[in-house]
Input
Amino acid sequence: MNKKISRIIKTAIILALLGFICPATAQTVAKLHERAIVVDTHNDCLTELTLKGKDITSRLNSGHSDLYRWKKGALDVQFFSVWTDKTPRNAAGFFHDALEEIDSLHRIILRNPDRITFGETYREIRNRAHKDKLVALIGVEGGHMIEEDLQKLDSLYALGMRYLTLTWNNSTSWASSAMDETLYPEKIKHAGLNDFGKKLVEHLNELGVIVDLSHTGEKTFYDAIAVSKKPVLLSHSSVWSICPVFRNVKDDQIKAVAKNGGVICINFYSGFISKEYDQRQAFLLNQKELLFAKSDTFLAGLGLSAGSDSAERMVRWNAWYDSSMNAVRPTLEQLVDHIDYIVKLVGDRYVGIGSDYDGVSSVPVGLDDVSTYPKITEELLRRGYSNKSIKRILGGNVMRVMKANFR
Output
């Protein structure tokens, strides 16, 4: 049996069993999903699974990602995020952290050439998609990993980096982050891009590395869009007008990305999809303060007394927190509302998927891991999207941005 037809049949069966879709509908969804080049622009499994000793080439019982589940989800292209926190893991520094993660991905590919391959040029990626292997690309999440050194940027490019997120939550000396611009403006020495930051964006354009503006503050966002001569990417951001949190993008930013020819890839994190989830989380974290302050009223609600030890309080708190947050997890439909919003505002050429799997603590109901991408296809079909539009959203738009940027 032809491999492509076999994959369509397998995907249809999975949809019918897991999504309770009638077989005819499941086959329609599976056929469209298989024909599309499906791209996810952000996954944190290298940090959260691989570096912690978990083997993503095996079927894992934890986390969101592994090669078995990617195949079930019929994903064609995955950007693997290379990330490190505000403090480096290794004494050698942030750049060494990046090298460690990139090396871990290359080792996985070398050991599994029949299941995963590497992509550096647009032509390679286009030709290798739909060949029953996952095409892996590298996105470096945070400009702090270049340590203010363009030679280190060049080295990361040579090792396969194909987008650079200008900031993570922490600002650099040359670019301010969304978190700092919104919550800690006193930390910022220079809002937006300074001269080095603008030079860096120009250098990314010259190299053929996509400028990623997720996590950047508004000032950095607009400075970078003004400098970049190529389409930009927001690898994992959602819509501020639906869920007003500092990591989401406002209408004027969405319009600016469309004018630039870029693409905004929707983040699956529940707190970026649902305002109710974000507000409930803020409320519960405030209650945690009461818990450890030994508030008699709050402790009584958990069946505890002021004399309860801290371990017991934490166990009860965790159970209560998980139950309360699960009750307000957003739905698949709410996630697709973010896609809808961008399409209605600027058209179907400027939105994609950037799940943030294995980098987030909660995802919408029904999108529990990387095997569930076809459910997005199903929901888009249900809403009346054309096959052409769905193919753009699932990956065509990101492929267009790759083509415009890569050498």
The CA atoms of residues 73 and 372 lie 5 Å apart. The beta strands are 39-43, 77-82, 116-118, 134-141, 161-165, 210-212, 233-234, 263-266, 351-353. Residues 276-328 form one domain. The radius of gyration is 21 Å.
